[in-house]
Amino acid sequence: MSKDIAILGVEYGVAAARSALADAGIPWRDIQFVSGAATMRCGYPGYVAGATFAQALGWQGAQVNTSYAACASGSQALAAARAKILAGECDVALVIGADTTPKGFLAPQRGERPDDPDWVRFRVGITNPTYFALYARRRMALYGDTAEDFALVKVKNSRHGFTNPNARYRKIFTAEDVSNSAMVADPLRLMDICATSDGGAALIVSSLDYAKRLGKADAPRIAAISTVTPTFASAVVEMPDLATDSAVAAEPRRFRAALPAKAYEEAGIDPKDVSVAEIYDLSTALELEWYEDLQFCARGDAAKLVRAGVTTLGGRLPVNPSGGLACFGEAVPAQALAQVCELAWQLRGQAGERQVAGAKVGITANQGLFGHGSSVIVKR
Amino acid sequence: MKPRTAVFDGWFSLDEREPHLLGTRCCKCGTYYFPKLNSFCRNPDCDSDRFEETPLSRTGKLWSYTNASYQPPEPFVSPDPFVPFAIAAVELERERMVVLGQVTSGTGVDALKVGMTMELALETLFEDDKGEKLVWKWRPVTGAAA
After folding, report:
1. Which structural domains are found in chain A, ordered by start?
2. Which ipTM score applies to this complex?
């Protein structure tokens, strides 16, 4: 039996859910399950995201679920909907994530909390860009990546997102723009690091039977959702920790690499079959790191891909045709769903000027705090 | 003179000449923990709940480095005006772990190189009415050994 589910409607923006319903051609009252994702940054509604969204759309008696898993919140909400559909408990579900985020550095909860690693690291002056920069500098030392390579990622993504009506930052950046921007965390400059952002994204997903009855048997399908945890011992120091695990009793493992590995296995799809990817470019250098974790190239070879234009639209394997976080900023609980939205548009051939020709298989990847991350495979 | 205390109680020895980070070690599988862990071992193949306190190696190899060009948000307490500082990730060989920390003041990223030997030092993180709060920092080891 197929474990796929169909993507009927996609949208993001303020009225994401309504637009996704219109896109799917389904009345709101037909939705049987609402799976919501949000953060607690804006208070109580975030703890009950599913109900918050359901009430905003008008209570109609659907079942609800709320997910919070940092950057993977949207994927966990999607996984909950898939489980419900595959268990035969519902036919069609709305998955929605939205948030508003304060400007500037993301900061921890207030108060004196020395037992909270997120509080402790800010106390000693370690912000999110610190981690991105440590990874970037390590790449430079190990593989010979340069600041110019990192800038190529920003230039590429800014060109991709320039024609995307859903992107928040639509401006073409040159390598000079990047190298002239302020140094934030050496070697990363302001234009190497994604902004925090507000946003929302929604998907309508259904059983394949339901899609067939609707005349949408050929809708893009979710073929895998990976939300695995890291495996002890951590190979790389991860936000918000001040240290890696000690690897004296267990070999070090890379968390980022584990996320897509599980998705490939679940979908029975090989990395070489991927036609398009939406990946978490929290920083330009981190996008390169993902190429390797997604097995698009050998460890250390990622800069060659961006230099050769492989991951640019028109290349063999376009990455972040939406413009990525470089053009969207990061609206935490919406972003993982926004990645799936872009893949759905790409696989439907509706991505306009940013269309990847003949896209058949897409993969997403993201990673956030406290062992959360996800990778979703969409196929047609 | 105002009292000098650790910014986090018990995280490092207050020997200003040769300070050590203070961690714990699982009595069964040998895994080190920093900050200290005293409840249940996090190695999925170990069911131990016994730990011994241990000083960590006070030197290691620079795994990577960066700096803070902008003032971090609270609870970081900044001098006015803010003074940028470098940050190091140092790999401890015996513990097989990487530990972050600021680099001692006056050393910028230009003086750092991945692979160089770093040693632990103590410096004042900030001062309040109760006294000076000390923090661990990493410092390049100068001389022939480096």
Report:
1. 5-99 (3.40.47.10)
2. 0.96
